[in-house]
Amino acid sequence: MDLNKCLEILEEKNRLIKIESEVDLKHELAGVAAKFEGKEVVVFENIKGHSTHLVMGMFWNRDNLAQIYNCSAKNLPFVVGDAIEKINSIEKPFEYVENAKAQEVIELEPDLYNIPIPTLALKDGGPYFANSVVIAKDPDTGVRNSSVHRLMLTGKNKLGMLMDYGRHIRDYYERAEAKGQGLEITINCGVSPSVYIAAITPSSAVSIDKDELAVAAVLDKEPVKLCKSKTVDVCGIADAQYIIEAEILPHVREPEGPFGEVTGYYAQEDDRWVVHVKAVTRRKNPIACNLLPGKEVWNSVGLTAEANIYQSVSKQIPGLKDVYLSHGGGGFYYGIIQIDPPKNGMAKNAILSTFAAFPPLQMVTAVNSDVDIYDSDDVFRAMSTRCKYDEDIINIPKSFGHELNPSTDNGIGSKIGFDCTYPIPKPEAYERVKFKEVDINNYKYTKKV
Questions:
Q1: DSSP per residue, 12-28
Q2: Class of residue 135 by CB neighbours under 10 A (exposed 0-12, middle 13-18, buried 19+)
Q3: What sign for the dihedral angle of Cα 110, 111, 116, 117?
Q4: If DSSP codes are grouped into helix, strand and coil, which group holds residue 224?
Q5: pLDDT band at 448 (very low <50, low <70, confident <90, very high)
Q6: Domain count, the chain
Q7: Domain for residue 396, yes or no?
Q8: What CATH number is associated with residue 115?
Q9: 33: in domain
């Protein structure tokens, strides 16, 4: 299932908004997109200086995605988690194709300025690819890796790139660079949600010797279509809108940033990795795709991380019911686990296991199943009435987390856990207030407007 098919489904379900007015790529497009954040997917049909359309918001609403996968929004993380679990059992996860849609037009003298790439936040260092899937090969084993990185346009055939510590592609690159070699990649723009989900699957969920693209094959119930590149020894996604063939140069660093990150703050300019573009291939009528850092990232991270946390923790601790990575924590830093542990102390073990399952987390709260983990007021009520602060708070100093979090020192910072579960057996004092269930339609009433 490609991006075009997904847009057809969303349009049929009235979950697509088309912006017909002309918009400028520099700040204006993102400003308009921000007005629709969390609602329907937005298609910009009139971009100044370009004839290509651009899609924003594929991931900022789980209800939209649920339509594509024919499930409920609440069940979506479990659908993703099931796909991750099944990657080793799928018989034919990949299929190489000739005459790929993504290679209908081949540009061996590439000019990235021909692609509508928006400058998003007001202080961003330039235009950014924010949701393109980067594919690389392990320089020693040849195992393929897919991941998503921010890429700043710095020239017609050059990009600045961020590679977070702990990512598989950074491991690939550092081993290649140690040999004096660059790392060849393809940058796949405008891929299906399934390919994107596969690419953001946490490293802890799929080991470095496995190909996470198989997650997309399970989700779509068909092989991922791949194509051989024209100038690099790395494949591309055959039904992408654009494929950029490139190399991350060895021993070269140039300024990249600032960039308005998922934290809601700017990642500052620094000398980072440089990508040399060798070719661009595309569809005859491509649809560009980008994202607005915020709910899109929070939702997409949650889809994969929540599933991974649930599977990992539930194998160790009984009683786990649900997991939610709160938007208030930027999707990366605050997790809420819902658990009815059979014995006292187990909720604390579950908190520690949650930190291990998703290292970027800085804070985890454990609550019972009578608490709505999607309702911040209900969670705070549990924190204020069930947590004994001298016994139920776990402090973990100087732990590795996420280097984009400004409260850390290059990723090193403190983590904190709150055990807000009631003691076992459940004290009578923790019985929730309930009221009689009635059908309001059986009652006459007047509503003043």
A1: HTT-EEEE-S-B-TBTH
A2: buried
A3: positive
A4: strand
A5: confident
A6: 2
A7: yes
A8: 2.30.110.10
A9: no
Q: Domain range spanning residue 345?
A: 316-426
Q: Are residues 187 and 88 in the same domain?
A: yes
From residue 164, give the alpha-carbon distance in Å to each of 308, 402, 408, 422, 436.
20, 8, 14, 38, 53
Output the domain CATH number for residue 370: 3.40.1670.10
C-alpha closest to that of 289 among 427, 169, 128: 128
**pLDDT digit string (tens) for 365-419?**
999 999 999 999 999 999 999 999 999 999 999 998 888 888 888 889 999 999 9
By three-state DSSP, how is residue 233 classified?
A: coil
* Per-residue H/E/C for 358-378: CCCCCEEEEECCCCCCCCHHH
Q: What Cα–Cα distance (Å) separates residue 201 from each residue in 87, 194, 214, 276, 303?
A: 12, 11, 11, 26, 9
Regarding whether 269 and 341 lie in a shared domain, the answer is no
Sheet holding 53-56, edge to edge: 16-19, 41-44, 53-56, 287-290
Contact 57, 292 (CB under 8 A): yes
The rounded distance, in Å, linking the Cα atoms of 173 and 168 is: 9
Q: Hey, how many other C-beta atoms are within 10 angstroms of the C-beta on 8?
A: 12
Q: Are residues 240 and 387 in the same domain?
A: no
- Characterize the bridge pairing of strands 266-267 and 259-260: antiparallel
Looking from the CA of 142 toward its CB, the CA atoms found within 13 Å total 2
For the chain, the C-alpha Rg in angstroms (whole number) is 23
Domain-embedded: residue 108? yes
What predicted TM-score, i.e. pTM, was given to this entire model?
0.89
Q: For residue 115, give the nearest of 157, 148, 57 by alpha carbon.
A: 157
Give the integer Cα–Cα distance in Å for 187 and 3: 16
Taking only the tens place, the pLDDT of each residue in 86-135 is: 888 888 999 999 999 999 999 999 999 999 999 999 999 999 999 999 99
Q: What are phi and psi of 47, to 5 degrees?
A: -100, 130
Helix/strand/coil for 86: coil
